[in-house]
Structures are given as C-alpha cells and as structure tokens.
Amino acid sequence: MTSSPPRASEEFVHAVPGARYVDVADAGHMVAGDQNDQFTAAVLTFLGELRADARTH
Q1: Closest to 52 in 3D by CA, of 18, 22, 10
Q2: What Cα–Cα distance (Å) separates residue 4 from each residue in 10, 20, 36, 50?
C-alpha cells in the first residue's frame, strides 16, 4: 500500500525543482520504518548529490 499513486508523486517531482522520486519496494505509508535501509540509501544518495552540486557552484 502506498500513500499516493506513483503517478501523482512523479507529477509532484516535476513541479518541484531539485526533487527526486524513488520507488521503495514493499513500503507503505511509513517508508522510513517499513524499508529503513532503502530509505536511508535514497536519502544519503540525494544528500550526496546536493553536496556535489554545491561544490560546483
């Protein structure tokens, strides 16, 4: 079960500059609790990308 359909989430990502969409398998509404390892990896990847972008600007 997801909190919103993937299509709605993808539309949101296109509307917010810098946003990312990550589909976390087998996660429900509480992604961080349901799939902690996948959630943490996605967040760390996102933060690493932000850090790399900050260094180039």
Answers
A1: 18
A2: 10, 15, 19, 26
The pTM of the full predicted model, rounded to 2 decimals, is 0.74
What are the extents of the domains in the chain? 6-56
Contact of 30 with 39, CB cutoff 8 Å: no
- C-beta of residue 49 within 8 angstroms of C-beta of residue 42: no
Locate 26 and state its tokens. 């087998």
Structure confidence by residue, pLDDT tens digits, 39-52: 999 999 999 999 99
Q: Please, what sign has the CA dihedral across residues 50, 52, 54, 57?
A: negative
Amino acid letter at 14?
A: H
- Length of the chain as a residue count: 57
